[in-house]
Amino acid sequence: MHQPHDHAYPTHWEADVVLRDGGTARIRPITPDDAERLVSFYEQVSDESKYYRFFAPYPRLSDRDVHRFTHHDYIDRVGLAATVGGEFIATVRYDRINDQGLPAKSPEDDQAEVAFLVQDAHQGRGVASALLEHIAAVARERGIRRFAAEVLPANSKMIKVFTDAGYTHKRTFEDGVVRLEFDLEPTEQSMAVMRGREQRAEARSVQRLLAPGSVAVIGAGRAPGGVGRTALRSLLESGFTGRVHAVNHAFPEGMQRLQPEEVPAVRSLREIPDPVDLAVIAVPADSVPDVVRDCGEHGVQGVLILSSGYAEAGPDGRERQRALLRQARSYGMRLIGPNAFGLINTAPDVRLNASLAPRMPGAGHIGLFTQSGAIGIALLSGLHARGPGDGGIAGISAFVSAGNRADVSGNDLLQYWYDDPDTDVVILYLESIGNPRKFARLARRTAAVKPVVVAKGARHNGTAPPGHAVPTVRVPDSTVAALMRQAGVIRVDTVTELIDAGLLLASQPLPAGPRIAILGNSESLALLAYDACLTEGLRPQSPRVLPSAATADDFRAALTEALSGAGCDAVVVTAIPWVGEGAAVSPADSEGVALAAALRTAAEAHPEKPVTVVHLAMDDLAETLAAPAPAPAPAQSPSHAPAAPARGEPARPGSPDPASARPAEPLQPPWPPHPPANRSRPPLPPGPPPTLAARRPEPARDAAATPPRPRPASLRIPAYPAAERAVRSLAEAVRYAAWRREAAEPGRVPEYDDIQEAAAGADIERLLDRLTPDAPTGRSVPVPPQDAEALLARYGIHTRPVLPAPDPDTAVRAAARLGYPVALKTTAPHLRHRADLGGVRLDIAGESELRRTYAELTDFLGSPEELRPVVQSMVPRGVDTVIRAAIDPAAGAVLSFGLAGAPSQLLGDIAHRLIPATDREVTEQIRSIRAAPLLFGWRGSQPVDTAALAEVLLRVSRLVDDHPEVVGVDLEPVVVAPHGLSVLGATVRLARAPATTDLGPRRLPVY
Q1: How far apart are CA 667 and CA 513, in angstroms?
Q2: Of 13, 510, 845, 924, which residue is least crowded by CB atoms under 10 Å?
Q3: Residues 160, 115 contacting (CB under 8 angstroms)
Q4: How many Å apart are CA 603 and CA 610, to the nearest integer?
Q5: Which strand ranges, in their side-by-side order, compose the sheet holding 214-218?
Q6: What residues have CB less than 8 Å from 589, skipping those under 6 apart?
Q7: Among the listed residues 386, 297, 271, 279, the one whose alpha carbon sits nearest the alpha carbon of residue 337
């Protein structure tokens, strides 16, 4: 029934997946070489599981069974296995059947019977759910649209695997067997289930790394110094609450403890009787494979590799890194590094500093991820300088510096921080993005509940940093920044801006709008803040300038008045040292302390509005504002009493809201008291991730076991040494708050009844077979014009017919067919869309004029063979625009819009949105270009039909989103008239879709 080449081993079905408990497994097709593995696996399965699989006692597999279960054609019969350490832990297979349930005889049969078997020791880890996702994707690839499964009623676990998957299914009961039939077409529910499982599994895998019960430092030297000994010292000095072991094969036999640390010392992991959760590896690169093997055999859950000499060292190192990743994953371990700086968890019940950082950062609510160790050092040092100590304004919840990030990446940390109650703000320093579509999806989801601040290195040179095997970006950096903003990401340029924005967002509520009050005792500094507000697009009020001799009480009264004003959304306080005479003045060393207390008192009364401070030469003011507020005295004077508890906590940017708290502003509800830090939380419950509207705080934990961290935001106020830095951070918060308001009511991706998705898919497959029979995956080819027009028509995008005119007589016949008036255009690449060079002649009313114009065109610009002239009917006058969609290897699928000609080509006036775009995003995209007034009646002109324009943008977005094979669409020009529009030119490019996309079953990336 199939050609021999159809039986080739499908390598693209291989995948590494994260399971429910945070461990990993490898999924791959079963081959004839797996006979012994299959027999061994079956021997370890309980009799009950065998009975559930075969509906009868089946103690062993016969030779015939083994042959049948290991020999597949990978089309009608497919078997997949989940492996750990090279051994099977679960299998799944399907057999194509016909409508009568018999083996299929025709490739038109689109149903298959599916069956699973999971080793008892691995049941409950989510192995069957992961296998179902992958076998369903394989079946869809092979033309199977429906699965059938027969399950014994007592096998409730397997029934739940099928029914919880989110597919449309039918359930019947006959002859003592439950029969389940379900369509394999992904649904909104099945995608939500898959991504919910992905989030919980990947978050759990990171949590296991950040909260180990025991750590082994492998490569800790006998003498002080060195990477391993430094990591061991950091671990001990941080107050790590778990067990620590020093491992070095060079330790003398009989050595039991490493001095002076008094740490248990062993020569090999095998000598440690207890489980080891995290291994910190600091040995030469050549020795790492042996160490990783020992870790895998000992059951280590994750490895942190500080060793260098991998992808950053060149091609040989890159291959060494890939082999290292395959080895670690084969044992079910996650890997941080290689060439990593380390990881830190400040939770009181963990206190983990498995890094080369010289000090343990203060505990707080900023989650920090970097790919660069140097930038990690800069961020940790910068935060420490701005607010040292636990509970300070610059405290962190967790820190990971992943180095070459062969495995654990920023995406994994976004999964973890998404619902981590101890992290309010996420800060990422990225030098490359390995999976841009997934990053955009995760960043958008995380930004809906807490701020995500990103600085992107290697923005302009078009190459990835050494050690990062990822595609390079093709679109300008400004486009990448715009796409990040669309996803709710706060994009900054420098390490200083990362810290500035992070401190404000971690300590202050989100502003309800752009109205800024400015007050202070320096007119010049206040004017600088005012100008900075205007530059950032904010709406500052006229500064209120206090006397240079203003006291702390004067500042408190002025700030209280500003915060009480209905026309104020945030306040910038500027301060310089007091200048003047008088006994009422505090000594210089306490002036900042007194002013900090006054500002805190005023801010506490209005916790719903953010306050930021700009100071000159008042370091004591900044230090006092950054530190936790002192505990209140037993009794306070009424004039300095804090706000009444009924006001609730201020609107925090990174925690859910309780139903019992009264909203302080329409933008954000007040936050609940923060639950105690606890990184050793249980696995997340099953089910899809909660929506933003449904998110609630986790239940309070045992306060006696873990004391809560300092929480009230108004007690810590960020201070900046320059007005521009303070205002820029505040402006980022204003823009992010506006995005949050819009994200609360997201747009939708419209459904159009006339879209023929299945027919378009068949057209694409046929075109790829014809145009790319031997082309490698990823290489794109242009689609012939008629085929491109037909494909676009499947999505309701209709282009004006274009007829070739290689000579005057053919041009006349074409015009007669289309009807006058017509346009005569050249399609030569150097003249395409160049009306300014005379390559486009419009409003040709008759045959004689057409012949005369044809002669002029060829006499002036070249021969017909060079010009490739065409004839096209005229359309109503309007504004010429251009619509493009493309797959950028580092940015994902991008939808672009601008005005045709000079605005887009010369000035770069183009707006971009990520695909799939919603109706709201497309409407904003049209209005966001600088030349948008031309569409809306500029200087008395008639407005054009922007609704029709938005519909075409949405249809192009749908086409590219539905079919990953469509890698380029170019509509130019699109003439938008007062009523309707006309697409005059269209090109489409196709490429065979990569074996894996973010739309497929969950899998770990391979860089």
Answers
A1: 9
A2: 845
A3: no
A4: 8
A5: 257-258, 263-266, 243-247, 214-218, 278-281, 302-305, 334-336
A6: 620
A7: 279
Counting runs of H as helices and runs of E as strands, what totals does the chain give? 27, 39
- Of 678-687, 800-809, 974-983, the least confident: 678-687
Taking alpha carbons only, the member of 417, 424, 364 closest to residue 390 is 364
Q: Please state the φ and ψ torsions of residue 893, each to the nearest 5 degrees.
A: -80, 125
Kindly state the tokens that stand for 344: 């830190």
- Contact yes or no for 349/679 (Cβ under 8 A): yes
Cα dihedral 664, 669, 675, 679, rounded to 10, equals: -140
Distance CA 28, CA 80 (A): 5
Cα–Cα distance measured from residue 717 to residue 656, given in angstroms and rounded to the nearest whole number: 22
Q: Which of 632, 558, 637, 566 is nearest to 599 (CA)?
A: 558
Question: Taking the CB of residue 939, how many other CB atoms lie within 10 A of it?
Answer: 6
**Paired tokens of 194:** 């898959």
pLDDT at position 548 is 87
257: burial class by Cβ within 10 Å (0-12, 13-18, 19+)?
A: exposed
Q: Is the peptide bond before 663 cis (omega within 30 degrees of 0)?
A: no
Rounded to 10 degrees, the C-alpha dihedral 104/107/110/111 comes to 20
Q: Is the peptide bond before 973 cis (omega within 30 degrees of 0)?
A: yes
Please say whether the beta carbons of 365 and 372 come within 8 A.
no
The one-letter code for the residue type at 648 is G
What pTM value is reported for the model? 0.84
With CA atoms as reference, report the closest residue to 884 among 896, 902, 870.
Answer: 896
Residue 397 near residue 420 (C-beta atoms within 8 A) = yes
Per-residue burial over 905-936, b if 16 or more Cβ lie within 10 Å, else e, is: eeeebbbbbbbebbbebbbbbbebbebbebbe
Phi, psi at 344, each rounded to 5° = -140, 140
For position 153, what pLDDT does the model report? Answer: 94
Region 548-557: mean pLDDT is 93
Residue 978 above 90 pLDDT? Answer: yes
Other CB atoms within 10 Å distance of the CB of residue 246: 24
Confidence of residue 701 (pLDDT cuts 50, 70, 90): very low
For the record, the structure tokens of 408 come out as 């654990």
Per-position DSSP letters for 520-533, written without gaps between them: ES-HHHHHHHHHHH
Model confidence over 888-925: pLDDT tens digits?
A: 765 678 899 999 988 988 888 999 998 889 999 999 99
Check whether 714 has a pLDDT greater than 60: no
Q: Using CA atoms, how far apart are residues 473 and 997, in angstroms rounded to an integer?
A: 17
Per the listing, tokens 């343990």 go with 360
How far, in Å, CA of 168 to CA of 172, rounded? 14
Give residue-wise pLDDT tens across range 396-448: 999 999 999 999 999 999 999 999 999 999 999 988 777 777 888 899 999 99
Alpha carbon distance 408, 371 (integer Å): 10
User: Strand 981-983 relative to strand 910-914: parallel, antiparallel, unpaired?
Assistant: unpaired
Taking alpha carbons only, the member of 594, 795, 844, 603 closest to residue 712 is 603
- Give how far Cα 155 sits from Cα of 50, 55, 177, 183, 536, Å: 11, 11, 10, 21, 62
What is 529-598 written as a DSSP string? HHHHHHHTT-EEPPPEEPPTT--HHHHHHHHHHHHH-TT-SEEEEEE----S--TTSPPHHHHHHHHHHH
Q: Which helix (H) or strand (E) holds 818?
A: helix 808-818
pLDDT tens per residue across span 764-816: 989 998 988 766 666 889 999 999 999 999 999 999 999 999 999 999 999 99
